Each structure stands twice: as C-alpha cells, then as structure tokens.
C-alpha cells in the first residue's frame, strides 16, 4: 500500500464530512440506547407497584432490580465477539425483537420469579445492543466529531430514562400503582419504532475491509459519501499497523490491551453503579430520605434527578472535543464525590437539601456518562472493538448488578447515610483509576491509537 493511498483511505472516513447518511445513521443508532435507557429505568417506577401486588421481599426486590443488569452482563459478554465475527448490521434485528417480546410478556406476570426472568431477558437484549450500535457508529464517523457523536448515545440513553419516568409518572398518577405491568410492556412500542429507524443502515466499511469484502465496502462508502469510491480508496482503509486479532476476549486480557480493558470497565462501573441505584430505586431512595410516601411524588422527584443527568451531559458533548477526554473524566469523579458526600454525612437533612445535592451529583455524573461509550470504542482496533465494548460493559455490570442488588439491603440494614458514603467511595476509586490510566484520544484516528500502544509495548 502506498502512502498516497493510505492518506486517501484515512480521508474517506476519519477526515471526511458528515453526510446525510451519517445523520440517518446517528438517528438509527440512537434508537437502541434510547430504548436501553427506557427499559432499564421503567422498572424503577414499576417496582413500587409490583412489590406490593406480588409481595416481593427484600431479596426478590433486589433480584428484580439487578436481573436486567445480570442479563446485560451476559448479553454483552457473549454477543460482543459475535458482532465482531458476523457484522454489526446483522445483529440489529435479533436484539430488538427480544426487547419487544420480553416487554410484551410482562403483561402476563403473576409472580416474582416471572418478573425476575423477564427482566433478565430484557437485559440480555440491551447487552447485545451496546457493542452493535456504538461500534457501527464509531467506524463511520469522522474523527473531529467522533467523541461528541458517540457521547450523544449516552445522552440519548438518559433521554430514554427520563421518558420512562414520565410514562411511569403518568400511568401511576392516572391509574395507580396497579399499572406497573403496562409500564414494563410499554417498551414494546418504542422497540417497534427503533426497528423502523434501522432500515437502510449499511455495514461498517472498516469491518467489511477486515473481512476481505472490498466490493461491499466500496458500494457502502459510495452510497454513504454520495460520490464514487474506488477499490484503491477501499484498500487504503486497511491499517497496516492494526493487529489481526480474533474476535474473542483473549487479546483484551493480555498486553498490550489489558490496562485499557480494566480502565474502561472499572471507570464505567464506578460511574454506572450510583447511577443505576438511582435509576432503579430512585423513588425508594427518595422515600428513605423522607420525600413522599410511596406514590407519584417520588417518581416526580426522580424525573427531576434524571433531568440532572441529561443536563450535565449536554455541555460535556462540547467539552469532550474542546478540552479532551482525560480532564473530563477526572473532574467528573471529583465533582461527583464532592456533591454526594453531604448526603452521606447528613441524611436527615431537609428535603431541599437532599434534592439540591442529589441534583448537583446528577449534573456531575451526567457529564462523565458520555465517556463510557467513547473510550472502549476508540482504544481498540476494528477486529475486537465490539468485543471490547462488550467486555467493558460486562465488567461494569458485575459491580453494578451486585451494587443494585445490595441497595435495598443496604438501605434497610445500615441506613441511608452509610449507603451514600459507599457511593462516595466508588467515585473516589474511579478518580484514582482515571488519574493513573486515562488516555487522551481527542481528534486522533482510530488506527493511530492502536499504533501508539503497540509502539510503546515494542519499545
């Protein structure tokens, strides 16, 4: 491959413009995270009614909240490598169908075991979607816009969570807590809409080239870039310094990628665990602080907190490109720890105090949320990108699932204040890991980030 063709190949995607196809792809890939946020959050409202009707004890309540995270762990772990093997596009339909069917089946739940099993199925489908949508979008987007656009997937996840609580609030305030089945089933409607959005998406040209399907890559690029693309241009997409790695976790668990794998998974866990505690048990936690008594009031408070996550993510979409990934990650953990600490020290504080510091915490945490998809997609080569996203997701969900299961036990066992202090400890852990391992990937080509780590190891 000549230097001229390599430069041309880089220009095709990394240095190219955003076209109409890119915008359609962004909308299509955003549908999955929106649905993920919705499905993982609607249970937070539904559990109040489900717990009363199905007579769930603390163990069952914890399992019902954590089941989707366990499923997400298993789904991302198993289906990330499959996505690397058979392609990003092909995996779209199966996971969406599972989301729709699993949601509709919730209309017929009659006991706690069925609730736990169906939440497990939904989690499996959500886990499949993370590697699919993020890897496909990463491999199509120019480098100058890549961080903000991949970060947008986390923001739209938060939009889905907010919509879930709005739907839950409307149903619970109109029809009472007995509407919890319809809350869980409502995800099927959004799933059908997302399936329609994904028609017309092309396979990743980087993945096609890696599989030797050059003519398919050329056709996809020509349609997406709205100009003729030659086979020489397509050949230039093959980065000669990118490793030929099988689509499995072996490469991710040894040098030179192990540190990056641990960094992505552990920091994601430290961000996700306090967030999922709020998403899943927000109304219950707010009630523990004395805000409301098991009705729609706590749900309304949860909507306000979810808006904090969303608002915090919006300026971060700009900062991630102007100030960089590393400083955003570090300062997110600093601010989150500072704002969560008062809730641990003074859990008996007045309602305004609780809501103010919870809201400030959500602003800080929301800013860091956009990085959880960016880092694993940028730090690994095409051949194992979806596997890396899947493994990072799995690592994060091990802790998040355990933590979510423990929240109701912790609240009833050691109290609200100590539970909040555990959250502070997690954010401090994330800060330490970020200071030690966070890299700066802003405005760099995907191939150059692979070259960097390989060169460092060889040196």
TrEMBL record:
SUPFAM superfamilies: MFS general substrate transporter. It comes from the Bacteria. The chain crosses the membrane at residues 25-47, 59-80, 92-110, 116-137, 149-170, 182-201, 262-287, 299-316, 328-346, 352-375, 387-407, 419-438. Coiled coil: none annotated. Keywords: Membrane, Transmembrane, Transmembrane helix. The keyword rRNA processing does not apply. InterPro entries: MFS_dom (IPR020846), MFS_sugar_transport-like (IPR005828), MFS_Sugar_Transporters (IPR050360), MFS_trans_sf (IPR036259), Sugar_transporter_CS (IPR005829). It is found in: Cell membrane. GO terms for molecular function: carbohydrate:proton symporter activity. Pfam families: Sugar_tr (PF00083). The keyword NADP does not apply. It is a multi-pass membrane protein. One of its GO terms (cellular component) is plasma membrane. Residues 25-442 form the Major facilitator superfamily (MFS) profile domain. Belongs to the major facilitator superfamily. Sugar transporter (TC 2.A.1.1) family. This is MFS transporter. The lineage of its organism: Bacteria, Bacillati, Actinomycetota, Actinomycetes, Micrococcales.
